[in-house]
Amino acid sequence: MVDFGGWSMPVQYSGIIDEHHAVRGGLGIFDISHMGQFFVTGEAACAWLNRLLTNNVERLGIGECQYTFLLNERGGVIDDLIVYRIAEERWLLVVNAAKIDENFAWMQARLEGGIDFMDASDEHAGFAVQGPRSAQLFDAFFGGQHRQPARNEILRIDIDGEPYFIARTGYTGEDGFEVFCVAGRAVRAWRDILSRGAAFGIKPCGLGARDTLRLEMCYPLNGSDLSPETTPLEAGLSIFVDLNKPDFIGRAALVAQKAEGVKRRLVPFKMAAPSPPPRAHYGVFKDGVQIAETTSGSLSPSLQTGIGLAYVPTALARAQETIEIDIRGRRFPATIEKKPLRRATA
Q1: Which of 136, 130, 159, 158 is nearest to 148 (CA)?
Q2: pLDDT at 144 (0 to 100)
């Protein structure tokens, strides 16, 4: 157990590699109760959110969701989050644990009339059920009484009179569901999912497996790969930025950066074997000159080699470019790769 954003969180249960393979080949469950939940309600909520977030929330129908960013005026990432439209004028935002207070204060300071904005993070718990057998568990759990949400959809399902929100997004590259319930139901929900999932080989998973799984898919981690000093364009995530919207915080900076040309890009790399696994803040070298610093790094259980992410000069941000990673004073060869480093299970 470790401190993570003010929460006591499990790094591992049965072991990082064991949990990683459980998700890739079968089924795993993550406790994501540390994530924040904001609710936004009101006739003006859609327009307000569109002025704060990079993606276009007007495109969302009821029950749909999208990945998006909250930016500062310089275009830097305050947080990456998912916004769900749960009713015509009601929205759920799921934000990163370490950013709950900062996000809420930033948004509250820009709150407009006719909008109810609430931080309900302490009142909710959450779980992520991930793996190729997750759909089977869903059907077995509900006995065919409820349809599965489609990809990037959220459903409200009442269980014993209590509301549950079940979404289908994910952070591992595998199929799966996120379950949000009131905090008082957390222990019971966790035990029910583990009990029903036993027939499918479900395993509880910790932060370690979450990191190796997301890194194989090149999904960025806020605070490591994303920060107030990095923009979505540099991170290669412009698909989640709608520059055609009239205005949102950070838009002017992104328009200028796009016009000037992005000077660096976040790229995945793979170590040549045999090499020790990289970690964050290791030097990245090209022709004897340091060009960057790693933002994430780990051993990939699927690829059986070290992998990582780093912002490198745009001229070098191309597949098969060779680089070196400085690991404890020695430099080891690596190759820049295409995203993702490991293809998701069909």
Answers
A1: 136
A2: 87
**Residue 198 neighbours by CB under 8 Å, 6+ apart:** none
Three-class secondary structure of residue 338 per DSSP: coil
Question: Domain 2-213 falls in which CATH fold?
Answer: Gyrase A; domain 2 (3.30.1360)
How buried is residue 330: exposed, middle or buried, by Cβ count under 10 Å (0-12/13-18/19+)?
exposed
C-alpha atoms less than 13 angstroms from C-alpha of 215 in its C-beta half-sphere: 31
Task: Tell me the angle at which helices 207-216 and 16-25 cross, rounded to the nearest 10 degrees.
Answer: 50
CA distance 85 to 63: 5
Q: Are 99 and 78 in contact (CB under 8 A)?
A: yes
Asked if CATH classification 2.40.30.10 holds for the domain at 263-339, the reply, yes or no, is no
Q: What pLDDT does residue 273 have? A: 86
Rounded CA-CA distance 330/221 in Å is: 26
Compute the distance between CA of residue 33 and CA of residue 8 in angstroms, rounded to an integer.
11
- From the number of C-beta atoms within 10 Å of its C-beta (0-12, 13-18, 19+), residue 261 rates as exposed
Low-confidence ranges of the chain (pLDDT < 50): 345-346
Q: Which positions ≥6 away from 159 have C-beta within 8 Å? A: none
Rounded Cα distance, 304 and 295, in Å:
20
The per-residue pLDDT for 345 is 45
- Domain borders along the chain are 2-213, 263-339
Residue 304, classified by CB atoms within 10 Å of its CB into exposed (0-12), middle (13-18) or buried (19+), is: exposed
Whole-angstrom CA distances from 295 to 122, 217, 218, 306, 339 are 30, 15, 12, 14, 16
H or E stretch at 312: strand 305-313
Q: Could you give the maximum distance between any two Cα atoms of the chain, in Å?
A: 64
For the stretch 42-76, pLDDT in tens is 999 999 999 999 999 999 999 999 999 999 999 99
Nearest one of 105, 91, 101, 90 to 36, comparing CA atoms: 101
Q: What DSSP assignment string belongs to 53-91?
A: BSS-GGGPPTTBEEEEEEE-TTS-EEEEEEEEEEETTEE
